[in-house]
Structure to design on (179 residues):
């Protein structure tokens, strides 16, 4: 199918108008690795991120994790190396804080208007696997996630900053750079 593009000058700025179907945004991927004090450890699966009309879709295919609920977030930096968290060295600490481009400075879960990096918590089965698709309705620009990290936390997530900050999920147990 041929695409038609009209280029016009409006006040010195180029305006591009495309006719036809929108260009598809390629999926992003993150290979998830255990977070250890020495750096990324053994692989524990993959996450694929695709754009959709409902927001970004995170297709999770994980194994080798502790059973139960685990906080799951996009973090701002593209590193899973050890680094400081609350003033102490921690596994995957170099991933930094939750992705918060709008500077909302609040943890409110995927449906709230806090960090854009707040995702639905993961539920790992008794056999250590998790295969599910999660939707992040406030993430419309998946390209903005490239070079950031996905982090899985030790505990669940209450989607609030109270009684503990950032959903109370605890330490970082797995991490993957989004590319």
């Amino acid at each position: 199918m041929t695409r038609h593009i009209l280029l016009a000058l409006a006040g010195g700025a180029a305006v591009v108008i495309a006719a036809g179907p929108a260009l598809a945004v390629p999926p992003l991927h993150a290979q998830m690795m255990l977070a250890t004090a020495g750096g990324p450890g053994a692989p524990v699966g993959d996450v694929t991120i695709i754009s959709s009309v409902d927001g970004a879709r995170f297709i999770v295919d994980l194994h080798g994790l502790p059973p139960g609920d685990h906080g799951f977030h996009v973090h701002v930096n593209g590193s899973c190396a050890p680094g400081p968290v609350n003033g102490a060295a921690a596994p995957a600490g170099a991933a930094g804080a939750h992705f918060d481009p709008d500077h909302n400075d609040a943890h409110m879960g995927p449906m709230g208007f806090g960090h854009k990096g707040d995702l639905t918590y993961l539920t790992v089965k008794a056999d250590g696997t998790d295969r599910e698709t999660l939707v992040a309705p406030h993430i419309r620009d998946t390209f903005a996630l490239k070079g950031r990290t996905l982090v899985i936390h030790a505990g669940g997530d209450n989607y609030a900053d109270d009684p503990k900050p950032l959903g109370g999920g605890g330490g970082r147990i797995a991490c993957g750079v989004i590319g």
Summary: The two ends are 29 Å apart (CA to CA). Residues 87 and 93 are 10 Å apart (CA to CA). The chain has one domain: 24-177. DSSP finds no helices and 13 strands in the chain.
